[in-house]
């Protein structure tokens, strides 16, 4: 979805550039407020992570595979501000270093992929975590839905930008249907991977998931050294400062993170997160419903679109297919080094792919993923004891 | 050795206790004094609180109870910059320590953050790199160096700040024997106070006349390295084990200086 | 990529183009692409002129044409998009080789192909004549917010470290007989991704510790800076200015 130069006309490119610059400026302030001086190293490392994880290959079926876009994942794991920053920096570097996405289209790409994806994903995530019961699974389900919607949302945003400044003479309806249709499919994959990844992080380090941070402090205890018996005053002194821990490291993360999002689901999520596994096999019904709804939506869009213009669907699917294929190849050995010389001879994907994946795989994928989540979760929890 | 009565000790830790924000308490009242010019090994099993202690020395973690004083200056928010200049910590993974695009910029980072600029800065960088024998690698990106070279550059990044006390976290880990010896030579040639956190007991014996054992968040033993390593009961109690075939009694080391 | 001055995208050389200060080059490329994008698509000859200009710079930079052409492959996905354009676009249709194609679709396809290719070529030229470190300094010099420059430079410094970790995790998976074949293996891959995130984040925290331990307080001390003389700016401006002249002519001619 990296838009090249010339796809969107100059005025709209400039306008989106302004929007993107504004969004990045706001995010810089927001991230600094949350992370303080830790912003640069943490956002830099998370950007490197997003960059790397975009090259992680998720096989779908019959030799095809997809990869993560990462916007929703970034938003959920590190919050919207840092998320926007990380994805923007990834896009910037991809554009400058690999010519992946035009320089003048940087505004379009950032608005579309960094801003819309991240903000939509985070807003949905917040809303669900706030409304749903505060359990760890809620975080996973919320991640799924947030990622699922965020990808087509970016497609909608792209269509809007296209409507304003597209240089091609293709009816908006067609572009909309093609973009949204295909991106619903991509969104399902994105959602599954995002939810599984967030689930994996929540299982090990719930404190690192922006939506599930919690602080539990116990009073300090003083043990006596066999060498020097503990000073009499030690116990007394130990009470106070606990609530005000690390000056710069761990301290800033919590207190600094909270003001911006006070009262919001982070806190709610936090109370749910550390809760020990409450019966691994309870109430997956909402998840199933979500999956089913997604599948139906997808099927609807596809059939609508397929009847309207089969060529177009084939095209966009083809386009996305090649895109993914090519990047997967680049990931084979030294991902960065070989980025420029993509082997795209293996373009055996055809438009038929869309049809196959479309309705059948949607349900299969949706259900399969939840089974996997459930099983993995169950083993993870029993493993943790 | 300087007279401890007139110069304040390089490091004085008393009654230090700390719990992480998640409630896990790592230190339970640590007392430790390191005189100027001493080389001390900090030994202890995994999870004993060694890293936590180290992070208190330059105020990255703030004591829950107790105090830390560096050359007479208490570690507190008011003079954190000066404390961080005085306490040079070399972290275990040089990839964490070397975060700048080139060796030169990395070594310059500390002094530049302290306000040094221009030829003075260049001179400082050159001298620090020379002390670890890495001067000709100044313009290389850290990623292109061998592990041993990166560890040495990591030491240089801290030396460039001319610290009062050099704190090394597992300096010999992941080094091949030659790099290990080269690093030992470098450390011995330095004229600074050294606190060395390590599991590598022969290395501690080679470099540090004095050792302290941190176990369960308190100092469990403090004395001459050779004495401690020969005390089999103490060693067993704190999960400290000598490598196969190594007998600390068979090694001749300089006498334990009074400090 | 974290390999600093030797990333594969960069081709070492001593040409006048290599010698230009990075911020001049970035500005020049950006303006050039902007001019190209603003050129009316009907002025076919103008795009030819741009291509000649770029070819001139490639020659001056002594970069083999094959190398640039190979790097152009990155835009293949959008070429596919452009090729299909004539089939789906609206408007009056023309017969070409027995196929009914949309006239405006053909123009759109041409527009995307020409502008996209020129844009990619210009970016490739920039990346292959400018060291990674210099690019960051250039962006910093062009007043990109310093925090953003820092984030980008950390991303570049640790991009390789993290990709290496990812590769080691893959090898570890394979060594235990795991081969991801389909959707049911996503759970395993995702937990790798999750572990990779945790490692990255924790490394970020450790890097931060190492930074504050050496006196970092949120701003990066400026150790290196780049400057450009008036002459260097003029050299760099030659490309976009010539292109601008071509563009204006393109607008003026019917």
UniProtKB/TrEMBL annotation, chain A:
<dbReference type="Pfam" id="PF01891">
    <property type="entry name" value="CbiM"/>
</dbReference>
<feature type="compositionally biased region" description="Low complexity">
    <location>
        <begin position="233"/>
        <end position="242"/>
    </location>
</feature>
<feature type="transmembrane region" description="Helical">
    <location>
        <begin position="72"/>
        <end position="93"/>
    </location>
</feature>
<feature type="transmembrane region" description="Helical">
    <location>
        <begin position="40"/>
        <end position="60"/>
    </location>
</feature>
<dbReference type="Pfam" id="PF13190">
    <property type="entry name" value="PDGLE"/>
</dbReference>
<feature type="transmembrane region" description="Helical">
    <location>
        <begin position="352"/>
        <end position="373"/>
    </location>
</feature>
<feature type="transmembrane region" description="Helical">
    <location>
        <begin position="141"/>
        <end position="164"/>
    </location>
</feature>
<keyword id="KW-0472">Membrane</keyword>
<dbReference type="InterPro" id="IPR002751">
    <property type="entry name" value="CbiM/NikMN"/>
</dbReference>
<feature type="transmembrane region" description="Helical">
    <location>
        <begin position="7"/>
        <end position="28"/>
    </location>
</feature>
<feature type="transmembrane region" description="Helical">
    <location>
        <begin position="176"/>
        <end position="204"/>
    </location>
</feature>
<feature type="domain" description="PDGLE">
    <location>
        <begin position="286"/>
        <end position="375"/>
    </location>
</feature>
<feature type="region of interest" description="Disordered">
    <location>
        <begin position="233"/>
        <end position="280"/>
    </location>
</feature>
<dbReference type="InterPro" id="IPR025937">
    <property type="entry name" value="PDGLE_dom"/>
</dbReference>
<protein>
    <submittedName>
        <fullName>PDGLE domain-containing protein</fullName>
    </submittedName>
</protein>
UniProtKB/TrEMBL annotation, chain B:
<keyword id="KW-1003">Cell membrane</keyword>
<comment type="function">
    <text>Probably part of an ABC transporter complex. Responsible for energy coupling to the transport system.</text>
</comment>
<keyword id="KW-0813">Transport</keyword>
<keyword id="KW-0067">ATP-binding</keyword>
<dbReference type="InterPro" id="IPR050095">
    <property type="entry name" value="ECF_ABC_transporter_ATP-bd"/>
</dbReference>
<dbReference type="Pfam" id="PF00005">
    <property type="entry name" value="ABC_tran"/>
</dbReference>
<dbReference type="InterPro" id="IPR017871">
    <property type="entry name" value="ABC_transporter-like_CS"/>
</dbReference>
<feature type="domain" description="ABC transporter">
    <location>
        <begin position="11"/>
        <end position="241"/>
    </location>
</feature>
<keyword id="KW-0472">Membrane</keyword>
<keyword id="KW-0547">Nucleotide-binding</keyword>
<dbReference type="GO" id="GO:0005524">
    <property type="term" value="F:ATP binding"/>
</dbReference>
<dbReference type="InterPro" id="IPR015856">
    <property type="entry name" value="ABC_transpr_CbiO/EcfA_su"/>
</dbReference>
<dbReference type="InterPro" id="IPR003593">
    <property type="entry name" value="AAA+_ATPase"/>
</dbReference>
<dbReference type="InterPro" id="IPR027417">
    <property type="entry name" value="P-loop_NTPase"/>
</dbReference>
<dbReference type="InterPro" id="IPR003439">
    <property type="entry name" value="ABC_transporter-like_ATP-bd"/>
</dbReference>
UniProtKB/TrEMBL annotation, chain C:
<feature type="transmembrane region" description="Helical">
    <location>
        <begin position="109"/>
        <end position="130"/>
    </location>
</feature>
<feature type="transmembrane region" description="Helical">
    <location>
        <begin position="72"/>
        <end position="89"/>
    </location>
</feature>
<keyword id="KW-0472">Membrane</keyword>
<feature type="transmembrane region" description="Helical">
    <location>
        <begin position="43"/>
        <end position="60"/>
    </location>
</feature>
<dbReference type="Pfam" id="PF02361">
    <property type="entry name" value="CbiQ"/>
</dbReference>
<keyword id="KW-0812">Transmembrane</keyword>
<feature type="transmembrane region" description="Helical">
    <location>
        <begin position="233"/>
        <end position="253"/>
    </location>
</feature>
<dbReference type="InterPro" id="IPR051611">
    <property type="entry name" value="ECF_transporter_component"/>
</dbReference>
<keyword id="KW-1133">Transmembrane helix</keyword>
<dbReference type="InterPro" id="IPR003339">
    <property type="entry name" value="ABC/ECF_trnsptr_transmembrane"/>
</dbReference>
<keyword id="KW-1003">Cell membrane</keyword>
<dbReference type="InterPro" id="IPR012809">
    <property type="entry name" value="ECF_CbiQ"/>
</dbReference>
<protein>
    <submittedName>
        <fullName>Cobalt ECF transporter T component CbiQ</fullName>
    </submittedName>
</protein>
